[in-house]
Structure formats: structure tokens, C-alpha cells
């Protein structure tokens, strides 16, 4: 059996949005990291509101070497129970992350840019709609952009090429099963 | 800011099902590979009906080294236009893959086992419900099991801990954009 290796006639950067309330948005973006490096592509990941909680992908991407530039920013989910930081501090972190996004785009070094949880950051007013649309509109034509997080803004969805909504049918935590390493974080 | 590293009081293997018609099921399972290796876990991936079409993760996982055991089986999607192989041949391939699953489980070497597209294989009668339920029921308590593919069987969903349905809101191919490496394969 012959193995087919696709090669598009026209290469173009896609905008992919992963939204919804189910498990598999950040996880899916990490799968695209693994897929892209397999093609020899350079990937930049910037996570919003996630700098305070270790997740396995922090070390997983290190094994992929210099093809992946990974930054986890922020101080956890703004507004959830137990998070001690005021909105202003979360916004400051997210605004710094937006600056970082522009620096990474301007570097011209990447084929795929993942903005993890940016949909939530927008919903929580840590970043502004104009800032997110600005990133979408100014990105180089060949740069793939992936935006994850619940409550994706309709104007972001409108500009995207591929949008998936990940819906929770059931989740282990509802049976009081604690988050498990490798699966949940 | 301190970084929290969760550690569950009780570790237990989860059954995760990723189903639905949207992009992000296989991709999400590949994200769990990256996450799990970050925790030092050993991962086995067995893909059904996918041995004929190169995808970036084939090479991506190689960068993760010996923590990942990856096998892509089969001769493409059974029954789709252009696939020249009869059902009997697809079934033979899938049955061989089921045997491989049992060998991998019995080896006791893995913390996470991903059965990619097994839901479709079941729907297409390449494997039997009893075979899939047998895997779920006999697996070691600590082994995480991830089953992907459209049309997950209700009895599989019933036995799972976490189930996400990935729904297509839009997809680039509907705008006649060809599949792009790093994103779609």
C-alpha cells in the first residue's frame, strides 16, 4: 500500500477557533503543535491566564526542541473562586501578553501561532475586541492562527476559517474524580 | 507568584471519548500525548483506518522519543469515495489492530492508550461492540484510555468518565480551501 502525502496547491494560513464548554480545546491546540513540528514547522504558543498552574505540556513541548516557543502568561483564571488577584492585575498580564503576540508575529519566525484561552480573556475584558481583531487582520497570510477558549466572540468566529465547538457530554469531575495528570493537566 | 502543581490524592485511569463531526478529536488526543509525556508517562497510540495517509504527528511523536509507541494501521477510511479496498480487508486490518491493542495492554508498559478513530471503526462494523467494551472492561485500573472518532456508541459513552462532542461550526474545506499541513494533517 502506498502512503499518500498531501501537498496543497495553495498554501495559506488558516484561522482556527476552538470554543465550547467541553474538554479538548487547549488539548487540541497542543495536538496541532505536535502535528506542525512533524512537518518541520515553527510554532509559537502563548497561553493567557495560565501561568500559575503547571500542566504537562510545559515539559512536553521541551522535548520538541527549538521548533516550539512556549510562554504561559497570567496568574490563573480571572474571577474564579480562590483566585486572589484583582481584575486590573489580570488585565495588565493579558495586555503584556498581547504585546508579546505582536513581537512574535513581527519576528516572522513562526508558521503557527496558538493563542490559548484568548477567547476567555476577551470575554473577561482582559483584552479588547479591537486587539484580537487587529491580530487577525494584520497577521501574515501564511501564518496559521489558533484561538482557544470558551465564549469565542461572534466577530472572531466570523473571521475564522475553521471553528469547532467542543461540548461537554460528561466530565469526570462531576463524579468527584480529581483532575488526573496527563489527561486533565 | 507560586506555581501550583496539582497531585490527585487518588490516581485512577480515565476513559475519555472524543466524538462529533468537528475538527479536534484526533488532534486533541495528540495533545494528550504531549501532556502525558511532560509528566513522564508512557503513551501508546493505535490509529485505525489511517495507515495510508501521512499526517504530521507521525513525525512529531518521533521527537518525543521512547515514551511514545505509535502505530498507524489500516488502509484509509472504509467506504469513502476513492478508497479501493473492500470491507473485508478493512475489517481484517481493524481486527489485527484490536489484537495489537491487547498485546499493548498486556505488556503493562503504558499509562495512556489512545485508540484513534475506533468509534468509526465500530460504527462501520470493522470491530464489534463486544470487542470495544471488552477493552474498556479489562483495562488495568490505572490505564487512561482515549477513544476518538465520530458516532461514538452509546454504550461506550455510558462507560466513559469524560466525553466531549466536537461540533463543526464551520470548516475551511467548505470554502474549497485544501487541507493544510500542520493544521489539517
Would you kindly provide a written description of the structure presented here, covering whatever features stand out?
- The structure is a homodimer of 185-residue chains.
- By secondary structure, the first copy, chain A, is an alpha/beta fold.
- Chain A has one domain (15-167): P-loop containing nucleotide triphosphate hydrolases (Rossmann fold, 3-Layer(aba) Sandwich), CATH 3.40.50.300.
- The first copy, chain A, is 32% helix and 18% strand.
- The first copy, chain A, contains 6 helices and 6 strands; from the N terminus they run E-H-E-H-E-H-E-H-H-E-H-E.
- Chain A is globular, with a radius of gyration of 17 Å.
- Chain A starts with 14 loop residues before the first strand and ends in a 15-residue tail after the last strand.
- The mean pLDDT of chain A is 97.
- Chains A and B meet through strand 1, helix 1, helix 2 and strand 6 of A and strand 1, helix 1, helix 2 and strand 6 of B.
- Strand 6 (162-170) of chain A pairs antiparallel with strand 6 (162-170) of chain B, so a sheet runs across the interface.
List keywords for this structure.
homodimer; 185 residues; six-stranded parallel β-sheet; 6 helices; 18% strand; globular
Amino acid at each position: 500500500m502506498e502512503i499518500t502525502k498531501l501537498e496543497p496547491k495553495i498554501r495559506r494560513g488558516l484561522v482556527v477557533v476552538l470554543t465550547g464548554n467541553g474538554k479538548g480545546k487547549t488539548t487540541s491546540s497542543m495536538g496541532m503543535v505536535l502535528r506542525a513540528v512533524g512537518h518541520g514547522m515553527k510554532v509559537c504558543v502563548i497561553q493567557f491566564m495560565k501561568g500559575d498552574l503547571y500542566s504537562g505540556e510545559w515539559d512536553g513541548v521541551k522535548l520538541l526542541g527549538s521548533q516550539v516557543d512556549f510562554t504561559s502568561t497570567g496568574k490563573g483564571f480571572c474571577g474564579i473562586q480562590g483566585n486572589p488577584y484583582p481584575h486590573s492585575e489580570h488585565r495588565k498580564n493579558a495586555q503584556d501578553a498581547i504585546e508579546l503576540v505582536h513581537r512574535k508575529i513581527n519576528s516572522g519566525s513562526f508558521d503557527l501561532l496558538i493563542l490559548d484561552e484568548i477567547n476567555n480573556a476577551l470575554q473577561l475584558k482582559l483584552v479588547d475586541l479591537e486587539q484580537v481583531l487587529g491580530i487577525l487582520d494584520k497577521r501574515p497570510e501564511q501564518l496559521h492562527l489558533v484561538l482557544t477558549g470558551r465564549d469565542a466572540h461572534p466577530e472572531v468566529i466570523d473571521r475564522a476559517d475553521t471553528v469547532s465547538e467542543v461540548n461537554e457530554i460528561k466530565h469526570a469531575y462531576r463524579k468527584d474524580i480529581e483532575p488526573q495528570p496527563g489527561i486533565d493537566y
